[in-house]
Design goal:
Blueprint lengths: L4 H19 L4 E3 L13 E3 L4 E3 L6 H15 L3 E2 L15 E6 L1 H8 L10 H11 L2 H23 L4
Antiparallel strand pairs: 1-5, 2-3, 4-5
Helix pairs in contact: 1-2, 1-4, 1-5, 3-4, 3-5, 4-5
């Protein structure tokens, strides 16, 4: 069975959450290779034209990684530092100094009412290490649902 984009997003989010939860409060460097995602070969920079030549298109994993991390930043689950000047690719795949925000940490520290034992962050980290894709997808879906409620409290909305 082929995974849908939302399945791929949930798996990628699980890997990112696991990495950041385990390193918290120390910032982590996020890149596809850090999470074991296959990457395309980069090309060579041509100083005469100012372009990169011989570059392969990004892999599906790189695309899912890039857009998932950017969404997690835009929705307030994590922050990251900026790239050095002149290093802003059109598809950002490197996120230095990434760290969970208060919203992200509160979400991952939540203990689902049906389990009452282990936080979602620990569940996601365990599922990511064990390779249990279904458990990882379920834990991420639960975390994002809790995160939406947390965000609603921050902005004063009833959820």
């Amino acid at each position: 069975m082929e995974l849908t984009n939302i399945d791929e997003f949930n798996l990628m989010t699980g890997k990112v959450f696991a990495r950041l939860y385990e390193s918290f409060p120390i910032p982590a460097y996020l890149s596809p290779t850090e999470l074991g995602i296959p990457v395309s070969k980069g090309g060579e920079y041509d100083p005469e034209t100012g372009t990169t030549i011989g570059e392969e298109p990004p892999t599906c994993g790189e695309l899912i990684f890039s857009h998932s991390v950017q969404w997690l930043i835009e929705t307030g689950y994590l922050t990251c530092g900026s790239l050095p000047a002149g290093c802003m690719p059109s598809l950002r795949t490197h996120f230095p100094h990434a760290r969970l925000t208060a919203k992200g940490l509160e979400t991952l520290n939540a203990v689902p009412s049906n389990l009452k034992s282990e936080s979602l962050g620990r569940q996601i980290a365990s599922a990511s290490k064990s390779g249990s894709l279904e458990l990882l997808r379920m834990a991420v879906a639960e975390a994002l649902g809790i995160g939406a409620k947390v965000f609603g409290r921050y902005i004063g909305a009833d959820t």
